[in-house]
Structures are given as C-alpha cells and as structure tokens.
Amino acid sequence: MMRAAVIGAGAIGAFYGGVLADAGADVSFVARGKTLEAIREHGLRIVGNTEVTLDVPATDNSAEIGQVDVVLMCTKTFQVADAARTHLSALMGPDTLVVTTQNGVIAPRVLAEIIGAEHVAPGVCREWVKIVEPGLIMDLGGPRMLEVSTMDDSPNPIIDELRAACETASIVSPVIDDITTTLWVKMCSVVPQGACGAVLDVALGDLLSTYRDTFARCIDETVHVARGHGAKIADDFVEKNLRFLAGQDPASTTSFQRDILAGRPSEYAAQVGAVPGLGDEVGVDTPVNDVIATVLGRREAANRA
C-alpha cells in the first residue's frame, strides 16, 4: 500500500489527505499549533459535501512518520521552502515524490531547487474547500480533482499509485501529458481574479460587470506570459474563462484576496507579484499586472511589517 504524508493540514491538505485516508490509504499528517491540537483531540473533520471525522496520525515531528512514497506539500507557497528543509529529509526515500498543490507555477521551482526536479510532482487541486476552524474543513463542492505529473511529464510508478488511490477515494485524477499547461491554465484563472479583486476590494460579480475590461486585460496578459513559458493556452481562453466565472457565486473571492485584505501574510509573491517577473523572463509586457503588483506589493509589505 502506498504510504503518504501531508504537510499542512489546512483546507487543501485536510481535504485531500482526509478523503484518501477515509478510502483506506495510509496517510499521516504534519501539522502544528491549534490545528495539531484539534486533530488529536477531535479528529480530522470534514463537513459539507463530504461528511467524515477521521482518527488520523498527526505530528509536528516528521521523523515520527518516517519515509513515505508520496508527500502532499499543502502549505502556503511562501512556506514551502521552510517546510521542505524542516521535514523532507525524514520523509523522503530514493523514489519519494513531493506533490505541490499551490496555485501558480512558483512552488515547483522552489521545491526543485531544494530536493531536485526528479522528486517534484507539480499538482493542481480542483475543489472548493475552506477552513471553518482548526481541524474542521468545509467541502463546498467542485470537480473533486487532483491533476498531477512529473516535472517533465515522464511516466512514474508512484504517480500511478497515487492516481489509483485517488480513484478509490472518488477523486478524479486523469493522466496528464502537459503539466506546464495544466499549471498555467489554473494560474490564468485564479491569479487575475485574486489580483483584481484585492486591488479593487470587490467580489467576483463586480469584476465581471463594473470592472470587466480591466479584469479581462489582466487575464489576457497572464495568458501571454503563459504562452511565453510554453503553455498551450487556447486563443479564446479569456472569454471562455469569463463565461465560466459568470456561473459561479458572484460573492466569491480568492483565498489570496481574503488574506491580503485582512492584513495576513499572503501568497502575493507567488501570484500577482510573480507575473511581471515571469513576463520579463520571456519578453512579455504586463502593464496592468505591473500596476496591480506594485499596489498590492506595498500592502503585502505593510502586512508583514
């Protein structure tokens, strides 16, 4: 049986790790603080579209878990490097894969520099989940999907085992033959929404109406950057994405948007803060993203001061 460890028992880590564990997978959790206390005292709880309470192994000392086949790295992007250096030496064997779950394209780069690209499996999570309180997660629904591949899309038996475990847990996990495009497609959707929503302090409905032109230009710039990095993004992506978003809750916001507006450290540097630099790497100008990144960068710095 595949052994897995989840680093970070927030919304994504608790949901995917919990659902896999509920289906019989051998999953341990690396958590800390109030989250660790809550899991130990009450179990890992998921409510909403998924209803389950699980008695799962949880620790703040990864050495207690030992080597595993798969690690789900479910921290915020700005925590990935520290989590990797703190925990992965105890969890990794010669064939272990570490699956990134963060929005954007930065986390796989960061992790590859620390453990080597051959151990990194970029992933894209597609389910709407949120933290109700430490150790208690609300599953709001969605595709219930985990898209994952190796950095170079080469076959890997550990990926095959993970997909099989996902199938048992009713998580859709298709074979991915272009993880670069998969990562960028989600970035081109989620990052502009969070960026525009945060800088304007509005929810999705206003972005699609009052500020539609600015929102569309922000998406379009990100798409051009994605293509510069080799992603195969369709010509009609912007309009299709806007139509898709029109079917979502108009009051919705992204976790990045909520964090930065609430004064918490956010994933700014891996999301809108990364777009101008990623554009520079491939010679793509991003004037709308440049302005948004500058404004939100000042706010992020103040939040962290």
From TrEMBL:
Residues 178-298 form the Ketopantoate reductase C-terminal domain. Pathway: Cofactor biosynthesis; (R)-pantothenate biosynthesis; (R)-pantoate from 3-methyl-2-oxobutanoate: step 2/2. GO terms for cellular component: cytoplasm. InterPro entries: 6-PGluconate_DH-like_C_sf, 6PGD_dom2, ApbA, KPA_reductase, KPR-Related, KPR_N, NAD(P)-bd_dom_sf. GO terms for biological process: pantothenate biosynthetic process. It comes from the Bacteria. Residues 5-138 form the Ketopantoate reductase N-terminal domain. Coiled coil: none annotated. The keyword Oxidoreductase applies. Its EC number is 1.1.1.169. Keywords: NADP, Oxidoreductase, Pantothenate biosynthesis. GO terms for molecular function: 2-dehydropantoate 2-reductase activity. It is an enzyme of class 1 (oxidoreductase). It holds the Pfam family ApbA_C. It catalyses: (R)-pantoate + NADP(+) = 2-dehydropantoate + NADPH + H(+). NCBIfam families: apbA_panE (TIGR00745), PRK06522.2-2 (NF005091). Belongs to the ketopantoate reductase family. Catalyzes the NADPH-dependent reduction of ketopantoate into pantoic acid. This is 2-dehydropantoate 2-reductase. It comes from Cutibacterium avidum ATCC 25577.
